[in-house]
Amino acid sequence: MKVQVNNKEVEIDSASTLTQLITQLELPSQGIAVAINNKMIPRTEWECFLLQENDNLVIIKAACGG
């Protein structure tokens, strides 16, 4: 199955959860926010949130500084 992550196509398993994708992309579990199809997904829902074909994800990493 293919999804878009920050405008780049990513191939994932067909029954992947958001947590599994975060792990596959080797992203930190803290300091990031995820929106799928323009809807923010709370961290408490990542484990059970199943990704669908052609989902559009935006992953934002927190940065220090001002």
UniProtKB/TrEMBL annotation:
It comes from the Bacteria. It comes from Bacteroides faecichinchillae. This is Sulfur carrier protein ThiS. CDD domains: Ubl_ThiS (cd00565). The lineage of its organism: Bacteria, Pseudomonadati, Bacteroidota, Bacteroidia, Bacteroidales. Pfam families: ThiS.
